[in-house]
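Retro notes (design track)

What went well: tokenization of the new backbones is finally stable.
What didn't: we kept losing track of which sequence belonged to which structure.
Fix going forward: every design gets posted as structure first, then sequence, in one message. First example under the new rule, 259 residues:
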């Protein structure tokens, strides 16, 4: 319930502070929230929240769900968030941490996030092997057939995960690609249990990958750190043996970015 104290606090906040508080309430919600729910969570009067939502919707920072009654993150806000992550990922200190990892495991490394139902490479450091998968920063790969993609969707609720997977074409790239939703649910349970994800030739035949999460201080997974290599050079067992190094590097990146 919004009280008189909330009204008094609201009157003392600037417009930017109010918008920031409202955006935080929307961002922290796993599903869309109604105006009343947002007012309660942000501890702001409904009229103030309604006015801010209209303004934020106008610039694309929030959008309504299919029911028209709930609010969620908008396209402009998503683009800005990814742009901010890209800017952070390309800082020399982050690339330096990734380069140190590549020097130790002798395989290519990438830092990725989920965007528009695909995995986006924020940054990538290549190894020196002549035979390697050539991908650049800004490349996109399928969410259902990569270690990083599966790790990211494993953090979602089952409802949201199934909705995402049903909205995309789940191409069967190889015999190992998981396209069945129930099988993917089992895979996601294993990923959450192990706190890492494997790609066992699911995107390209002969390509193995392993991915670990980057977690904020509140334990939210915001990105993934991964390596991949030809199977003749890196077996599944070898990839798993690199997991502690990956997790160490992921923690370093989170610390350096102040997340």
């Amino acid at each position: 319930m919004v009280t008189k104290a909330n009204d008094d606090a609201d009157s003392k906040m600037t417009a930017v502070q109010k918008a920031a508080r409202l955006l935080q309430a929307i961002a922290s919600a796993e599903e869309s929230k109604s105006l009343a729910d947002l007012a309660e969570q942000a501890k702001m009067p409904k009229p103030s929240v309604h006015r801010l939502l209209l303004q934020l919707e106008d610039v694309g920072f929030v959008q309504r769900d299919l029911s028209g009654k709930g609010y969620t993150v908008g396209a402009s806000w998503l683009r800005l968030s990814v742009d901010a992550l890209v800017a952070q990922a390309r800082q020399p200190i982050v690339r330096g941490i990734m380069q140190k990892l590549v020097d130790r495991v002798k395989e290519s490394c990438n830092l990725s996030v989920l965007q528009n139902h695909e995995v986006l490479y924020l940054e990538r450091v290549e190894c020196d092997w002549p035979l390697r998968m050539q991908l650049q920063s800004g490349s996109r790969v399928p969410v259902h057939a990569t270690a990083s993609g599966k790790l990211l969707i494993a953090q979602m609720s089952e409802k949201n995960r199934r909705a995402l997977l049903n909205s995309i074409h789940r191409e069967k790239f190889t015999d190992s690609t998981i396209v069945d939703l129930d099988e993917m649910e089992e895979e996601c349970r294993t990923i959450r249990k192990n706190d890492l994800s494997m790609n066992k030739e699911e995107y390209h035949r002969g390509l193995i990958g392993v991915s670990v999460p980057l977690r904020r201080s509140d334990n939210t997974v915001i990105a993934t750190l991964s390596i991949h290599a030809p199977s003749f050079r890196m077996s599944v067992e070898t990839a798993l043996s690199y997991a502690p190094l990956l997790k160490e590097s992921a923690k370093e990146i989170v610390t350096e970015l102040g997340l």
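Added context from the reviewer: The first strand starts at residue 33 and ends at 34.
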